[in-house]
Amino acid sequence: MKKAIMLFTLLFSAVVTTAKAQSVPGTDIFVADLSVQNGQLKLGELKNITSRKGYDNQPYFVDDNQSLLYTSEIGEQTDILRYNLKTQEIENLSNSPENEYSPTPMENGTEYSVIYAVDGKQELWAYQLNGEQRRPLYSGEALIGYHAWVDDKQVLVTVLEGKGMNLQTFESEKSN
Questions:
Q1: What are 84-120's pLDDT values in tens digits?
Q2: Residue 45: which residues within 8 A CB-CB, separation 6 or more?
Q3: Is residue 137 part of a domain?
Q4: Reported pTM
């Protein structure tokens, strides 16, 4: 079905300074409607979806085009939250005592991958979008930073080494 106006969601992540010194700076995530009118891009009103003190960052849209995942600092650790663009509801998907970062939807459409940080390690794990189960995809000596899926089995990762990062490709150990 052809539409006269294409509507996209535009995402902004902005750093917000906080008076209290923190290990991670306070950040917020903004969304806005983006449309094309007469060949010109039109940006709708910006809406802060994480208007609170603390770290909210690393957003990623889910393929359902109705929600986005992001990392949120809750107390002393980080969890993965889902924001529903239609209902404006926020749901904590990981809700764990460990730190999770960089939520990235996987090609199977039912899971997302995260950097799972515990005991000085940073591993790659898969979590179900319904929040019920999680499983390791890559665990080893490498400290994984950011990641992006090449296909349903290969993942491109930054590996933290010394004062820098190296780009590597891993075959996930247990992909669906």
A1: 999 999 999 998 889 999 999 998 889 999 999 988 8
A2: 32, 33
A3: yes
A4: 0.80
